[in-house]
Amino acid sequence: MTIKVTTIQEMQAIVKSLKKELKSIGLVPTMGALHDGHMTLMKRAQSENDVVIASVFVNPLQFGPNEDYDDYPRQIDQDQAFLADNGIDYVFAPSPEEMYSNPLQIQLTVGAMAQVLEGAKRPGHFDGVVTVVNKLFNIVQPDKAYFGKKDAQQLAIIEQMVIEMNHPIEIVGIDIVREADGLAKSSRNIYLTENERREAVALSQSLQVAKTLFDKGERNVEVIENAIKTFLTQHTAGIIDEVAIYSYPQLKQVEVIKSQVFISLAVKYSKARLIDNIILKDEQ
Ligand code: PAF
What we know:
Layout lengths: L2 E3 L2 H13 L4 E6 L5 H13 L2 E6 L19 H10 L4 E3 L3 H4 L17 H5 L3 H16 L3 E5 L3 H13 L5 E5 L19 H6 L1 H15 L5 H15 L3 E9 L12 E9 L4 E9 L3
Parallel strand pairs: 1-4, 2-3, 2-5, 3-4, 5-6
Antiparallel strand pairs: 7-8, 8-9
Pantoate (PAF) binds next to strand 2 and helix 6.
């Protein structure tokens, strides 16, 4: 059974008693509409903690004025059943009124790390993400918290937030879950036509092209970006929306790869914008 908790006060009381029993707590923050990708995070949390708390909260602060906040899927009963089937102990599902005072007086702001990539396209998005994650950390006080590497910029920003806000929490990044042919799993994949689905494997394959070049010693960003673009153009009719290489986790633009970088891809199909990424690390 998964116990549903909707108030901060009740969640804090549960956390207090778990702490008294010296139970370790793993937190998996989500916005609900749970799928297999979330389950990978939950399973890892279960294997490393005595108790797992999943949060389900569609966070209004991270949606821009023209984004799909109102239409975002809300299916808490289905999510609770899914969590119960998978043996998750608690789901924390507060309302926006429970989480935020109105008008909101205080929120966190992210610096340069939020001015690039997804953050550049969605002003204020990462301010909303760190504000809610900071609140969830304060309420749940987990030992470990789990985030997908698919949102690599979000993961880097949250790791920085933990350092700067002094949370005694270990952030665990979970590898991208892929279909058998390498396509990153996403709820958006269902919007692909049959042909687009066949071609979409080109995203992960192009990242492997980049990795092969990197492994052979190529460190010039332009050369690697061009190789990715050429591969994508030859293997899919999807429109290339982004091929970007940034240092990781600093998220600074680089011309020559010196240590660890993150390659971010986005390709637009008729009804879906697919993203993928890879982290490449220089061992020397
Ligand atoms: O990645 C998400 O689903 C959200 O950004 C998060 C981390 C749950 C914060 O609302």
